[in-house]
Amino acid sequence: MSSPMNLDYTAPKVDTLPSEIQRLIVSHLAPSGDLYAKGCKRHLKNANLAHSCLRKWVPEFMFRDMVLPHVLAGMSFELERFAVNPAAAKLLKHVKTIAVKIPPAIRWEIDSTDPFDYIDDITDQRLKAKFNVSDPKDFTDEQRQYCSDYHRAMVEPFTDSRRWLQLLSYARQSFPRIFGYFPNLETIAVGVCKRTEHPNSTFTNLFVTQHGKQVIEDAHPYFTEDPNANLAWASAIALQSAPSSVKSLKLSIANLDNLNSFATVNRLLSICYKSAKTQTRQPTKSITSLTLDFRGIEGTHGDQAWNGDTGSAGMVRYWKYVLGSLPNLTSLDISGKDLGHDLAFSSLEETNNNGCLLEWLFNGLRLVSLKSLFFRHFLIEKGTIPKVCEEWPTLETLHLEEIRLLSIEDPQGESRPHHLDIIQGSAWLEMCTFLQGERPEIVVEVIRPISTINNFKDWRLHKKIIKKLCDLPNVKSLVTDGEYYCPNVNAPRDSLDAFSRAHLGIS
User: What InterPro entries does this protein map onto (predicted)?
Assistant: First the structure.
């Protein structure tokens, strides 16, 4: 028997590969995860320098995702300088996504218990621990200078309400112009420009470069950042400024419990809400995909019949107008992951914790082209989803992720047998069974469902309910394992036993 032939194998060189493979290699070098982190495109830059055969593919991915840090009124944006540079004219076609990044505000009043005359006094008080002194009067000259620079760089720019009004005004002027430079722009997203991410032309960046990103941890207690209102007004302006080439938007909504019309956060939002109603230009009809991140305080704030711009009613009225202006919208992804109670302005006396934001928003709203609907991390009253699905005749896919399905029971009533059924998940079964009967063409996808009575305690679904859901033809995907983002989700119960009414939230 002859021995097998020894074959020498030499790996092909990059420049001998087919052009499709070379392009694929470059595509894998493009950033994933945080697309806009500093240095995220270094692999593309290295490929551009190291391999001439890959060079022709690098621009497509190097300039595909760009960032617009909107942090200073009147500042010359690097992205705009790139757009007007004649040498870059052939590269503008590659830009497909622009991420607008807005700085957060600092809520200096949170955790400020010591007496003060000015906000920089608060900064001094919070930096005492760094220098191990008990009184700012004991600072050395060097320490006092550090505190002064810290306040100027890391606090003052984020507490000056005039800055936000200037930024809003400048955004209304500059966003339409900048977006219009890029003929193939398809997606606009709005996110946070962290204090440690400010561009080179700012004193904030200079201070962070000099002392390191950990400077934000020097303050004790930590300064609380609140980006909610800024993200909301920037989202409204980005929406109103999108050119006709844009098909997808990733924006934020602010659901604030501050009902004071003169508060800065409400003045900012009111400007955007009113301008949308008065300007002749509506959101572009080419938008087919919209992602909305609800931020702020959970629940509904104020009266639903309120005609002003504050509270949940003002927010809902504006976004109902926006959604009604998007006739070709086919995909809507709405998340309440950033709703909580940590950044409340009030004691929530005007807040209904059981209020369903989505019912306010979608009541009477017809989206005639919508095919895919995603609800994530929301408290939703059990009758809302069937009502919504009846209004949208073209809906094909309903994705429900960590939805807390709410059943309202008399808080003074007695604990009855059907309360056990509710916490085990009967409302989920009723809802999906209704959809199977009325809209069998809708594919239902359920991820980590939750049941709650009166928004008191959250419960995982019981295995008997899970089995019945899996047997429904319209429930194509049901995931019940994995870690819940929602905190304190209780294990399912087989019986009530000696459970008191208080434990169910009905006492």
Answer: LRR_dom_sf
Residue-wise pLDDT for 399-441, tens only, equals 999 999 999 887 666 656 788 899 999 999 999 999 999 999 9
Eight-state DSSP code of residue 272: H
For residue 471, the SS3 value is helix
As beta bridge partners, residue 477 has 445
- Which tokens sit at 19? 């052009």
Please work out, in degrees rounded to the nearest 5, the angle formed at the alpha carbon of residue 113 by the alpha carbons of 109 and 117.
Answer: 70
Please, is 504 exposed, middle or buried when counting C-beta atoms within 10 Å of its C-beta (0-12, 13-18, 19+)?
Answer: buried
Which residue reads 């800024």 in tokens?
230
What is the mean pLDDT of each successive set of 10 residues along the chain, which is 507 residues long?
Answer: 59 70 73 64 69 72 89 87 94 95 95 84 94 94 97 96 95 95 97 94 95 94 96 97 96 97 95 76 86 96 94 96 94 95 92 93 93 97 92 95 92 70 94 96 97 92 96 96 90 72 55
Q: One-letter amino acid identity for 220?
A: H
* pLDDT given for residue 332 in this prediction: 98
What is the three-class DSSP state of 388?
Answer: helix
Name every residue whose Cβ is closer than 8 Å to that of residue 481 and which is 6 or more positions away in sequence: none
Nearest-Å Rg of the Cα atoms of the chain is: 27
Picking from 400, 299, 298, 302, the residue whose alpha carbon sits closest to that of residue 339 is 298
Q: Which amino acid is at 336?
A: G
Query: In one letter, which amino acid is 485?
Result: Y
What is the structure's pLDDT at 280? 56
**Short-list 409, 408, 410, 403, CA closest to 428:** 403
Can you tell me whether residue 15 is helix, strand or coil? helix
- Indicate the pTM of the whole model: 0.90
- Nearest alpha-carbon partner for 312 in 232, 229, 254: 254
Exposed/middle/buried for 453, CB within 10 Å: 0-12, 13-18, 19+? Answer: buried
Cα distances (Å, whole numbers) of residue 291 to 66, 204, 282, 355, 443 = 19, 31, 18, 22, 20
Query: Phi and psi dihedrals of 269, rounded to 5?
Result: -70, -35
**What pLDDT is attached to residue 411?**
66
Query: Sign (positive/negative) of CA torsion 237, 251, 216, 36?
Result: negative
3-state secondary structure of 352: strand
Asked if residues 87 and 118 have their Cβ atoms less than 8 Å apart, the reply is: no
Q: Are 444 and 403 in contact (CB under 8 A)?
A: no
